[in-house]
Task: structure prediction
Amino acid sequence: MRTLSLRLGLILGLVGLLMTACGAPGATTTTTVHGGTVTVLGVWSGSELDSFNAVLQPFETRTGITVQFEASRDQDAILTTRVAAGSPPDLAAAPSPALLTRFANQKKVVPLENILDMTQLRSDYDKGWIDLGTIGGHLVQVFSWAALKGLIWYSPGVFAAKQYTVPKTWADLLALQAKIKSDGTTPWCMAVESGAASGWAGSDFHKEIALSTVGPAIYDKWWQGTQPWSSTEIKQTWTTFGQILGPGDSNVYGGANKIINTNFGDVGTPMFQNPPKCNMLNQASFITDFFVKANPNLKAGTDFAFFPLPDVNTQYAGAHVGAADAWSMFKDTPQSRALLKYLVTPEAQAIWVKRGGKLSPNKRTNLSDYPDDLSRSIAQLLTTTKIFKYDAGDLMRAT
Amino acid sequence: MKNAYWQAILSFIQDQTKLDSILANLDKVRATAYTSS
Result:
């Protein structure tokens, strides 16, 4: 009997391994590996790591797989060394696809089209996500959690008191800027200090303007390096950004000195002073955490809300820039297959979504999974975005 | 390229009248960045 049980256990185990290995229909939601480990290199720490661990908990319980997670912001050096030594992690999660694309171009990552259920994946994800992860005809990256950039934050209370209306068009936005200036304050708060990465926060604003100005084709040529920066089209994106800054940065509180020397996380501080020193700011959804940490009494929806940057060129209406956590497989094992299949499901993505700070690129994730109306509104904007493009800066070649 | 882009943003904020030279410098970086492996 003991031998029979052992044999039965072995057979069931093999069936489990095969179910995972074959990429059968529906395999994105069914993983039955029992035991083993999968190594993951990522960047998350602190509360983000807590959220990722929460995502892993039901997976580990269900599959018996232990996820060995290693966090490092120096992924480039670590992956380069380990890949050269033939000992990469099973999976890597990067905050942008550029690094993993390099390894894909070197054919160091595993094509995923025979591992994931592509019918389900194409149903769950917009084509843009699939295209972004496809290199040389092979799917080599998939995306788990996303963020939407190009959000303009403001105080609904201040807008109501001053009878400012949320701009629907670029002309409306320029008119609002002029109105705010004529009322004696500055339209914009802006802060781009970020140590060695200073400037990125301003580049986020510029990229959103760029996509909306020149459209997706030139935007892609731009980050791919085939569209000159000094071309008429790209120069226009800068002069349009200059319309926001105003002559001599006169549209921005504190001018150039304050913009450059204020940490990006403090960008909202002058907007929430009484009276406010500035009235709008551009930043991705994560900035609300900074708002509330600096001013714990602030309430979403009352004290701060967002509107999408109005279209610069209506030919490219509804164009928005975003970013996402990209995954690639370096070692094809039943355990790494199982984890990757799990991570692209709405079940896995909803766990972090419910905890706040992330959006799900999977269309089957319910809006009701978002923790508040504000995050639901951002998620809805992501799902209704007509032209979604990944952050060009994260895609540009390293120098 | 990305770091040069961020630096260009800082330069543009400091002096918008230097846009042409900022963009010319970015094109120099582009020429290097996209030809190296």
Chain A touches chain B at residues 190, 192, 197-200, 202-203, 206, 225, 228-230, 234-235, 238-239, 241-242, 245, 247-249, 256, 259-260, 393-394, 396-399 (CB under 8 Å). The CA atoms of residues 60 and 66 of chain A lie 6 Å apart. Residues 200-224 of chain A form the longest helix (25 residues).
